[in-house]
Request: fold
Amino acid sequence: IFPNAGTYYVEVTDESPAYGGADYFYSLTITAEQACDTVEIESNDYYYYADLLDVAGVACGHVDSWLDDDWYSFYAVAGETWTFDMSAYENGSTLNAQLALYDTDGTSLLYLDEPYWPNDPYFSYTFTSSGYYYLEAGSDLILIDDFGPYMIYVY
Reply:
């Protein structure tokens, strides 16, 4: 997952000189996604340190362990329906992710999507009042597949 638009370089090397070299063919596949509108900045491990999420954009981050949660804040208007689509495993990450939506106080859970692996979180929510809400991205708190990069599509 590339956090910004730009030029990136890839190096291909042999793990074993006995099975490679100039006389061998290699296949490299690279898939490009939309660049990130919001890039997660540590420390954003609690709602009061949340990164501001761009509306109708893509947030990118990295969960470092089962203890690392990444928080985002955004302003929603009463009656709006937003969709949150998290891509981790789908993009090749080892993260078994969960995504939680919190009310304007940052502590009242409104919605939790913790799908069974290998599915990534995806849900829509209609807001009943206007205000700043919070989104928490993290691992499923199981000590297997609890770290890796992710992208959250918001629309």
Q: What stands out?
A: The mean pLDDT is 85.
